[in-house]
């Protein structure tokens, strides 16, 4: 008789505990958004000593990246819960993290479109069922702009229509702002010409009206990077002299140094046989 009463008492106690836990979880779910875990994903990228918050869904390729899940729990309902995090970066690589550190560290080696998925599990008490939620976000990985290269020589002829071609790496679209500075004299009042590239080649046509060293300032940016550089271009005055059996080409340009002007002559050309 005593044994039956003890078993009956233990059964009632288990039912009571289960009821209390269920009611507690019901209250939590009523407080948490939509009856599920509420939070957001935050992306960070580290370049040198700088850390950037990427909140537009765009990341730079081949850059150390950290993604963190921030739980929204103002009532501290999950302050003592045990969490598990399952990360799928969308590139065939998975990392499972158990514990209280809701972060994954990685990098995308190639540009492209990826879908990052996170499954969060929370266990409030030992007897409580596991609460789970799944987060998914689309990520566009872009190549950062790191170099601008001039395809061609650095010396050109004065008063001639000149075509310049530059290779700009990075993922388009790329915004370019450029300007020429005669004699490389800074112009604080002048602006620059803004264009948009949908490829990686910048082509400029320009006629230089004076000899000397001219500077071309170029500023470029895309959605995740920016770069500024300057090119020194040597503008020459070309003279051709014809003598019997001799053809000389004289290239000259004027340089400025400490207020003085210097004119340099470069002599070149083949020797033709007498006709």
From TrEMBL:
InterPro entries: Ig-like_fold, PKAT, PKD_dom, PKD_dom_sf
Transmembrane segments: 6-28, 231-250
Domain of life: Eukaryota
PROSITE patterns xrefs: PKD
Species classification: Eukaryota, Metazoa, Chordata, Craniata, Vertebrata
A GO-annotated cellular component: plasma membrane
Species per Swiss-Prot/TrEMBL record: Sander lucioperca
Name this polypeptide is given: PKD domain-containing protein
Residues of the signal peptide: none
SUPFAM superfamilies recorded: PKD domain (SSF49299)
Annotated ranges, domain PKD: 84-120
Keyword tags: Glycoprotein, Membrane, Signal, Transmembrane, Transmembrane helix
Entry-linked PANTHER family: MELANOCYTE PROTEIN PMEL 17-RELATED (PTHR11861), TRANSMEMBRANE PROTEIN 130 (PTHR11861:SF10)
């Amino acid at each position: 008789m005593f044994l039956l009463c003890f078993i009956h008492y233990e059964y009632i106690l288990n039912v009571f505990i289960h009821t209390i836990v269920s009611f507690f979880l019901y209250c939590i779910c009523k407080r948490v958004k939509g009856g599920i875990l509420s939070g957001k994903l935050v992306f960070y990228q580290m370049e040198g000593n700088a850390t950037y918050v990427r909140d537009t869904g765009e990341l730079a390729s081949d850059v150390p990246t950290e993604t963190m899940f921030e739980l929204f729990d103002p009532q501290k309902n999950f302050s003592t819960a045990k969490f598990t995090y399952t990360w799928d970066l969308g590139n065939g690589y998975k990392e499972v993290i158990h514990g209280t550190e809701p972060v994954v560290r990685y990098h995308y080696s190639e540009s492209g479109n990826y879908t990052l998925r996170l499954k969060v599990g929370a266990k409030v008490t030992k007897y409580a069922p596991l609460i789970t939620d799944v987060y998914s976000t689309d990520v566009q990985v872009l190549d950062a702009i790191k170099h601008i290269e001039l395809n061609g020589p650095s010396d050109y002829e004065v008063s001639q229509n000149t075509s310049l071609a530059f290779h700009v790496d990075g993922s388009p679209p790329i915004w370019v702002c450029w300007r020429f500075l005669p004699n490389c004299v800074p112009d604080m009042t002048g602006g620059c010409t803004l264009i948009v590239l949908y490829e990686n080649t910048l082509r400029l046509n320009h006629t230089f009206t004076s000899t000397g060293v001219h500077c071309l300032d170029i500023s470029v940016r895309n959605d995740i990077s920016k770069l500024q550089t300057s090119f020194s271009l040597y503008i020459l005055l070309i003279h051709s002299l014809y003598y019997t059996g001799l053809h000389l080409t004289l290239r000259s340009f004027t340089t400025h140094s400490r207020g003085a002007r210097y004119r340099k002559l470069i002599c070149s050309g083949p020797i033709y046989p007498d006709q």
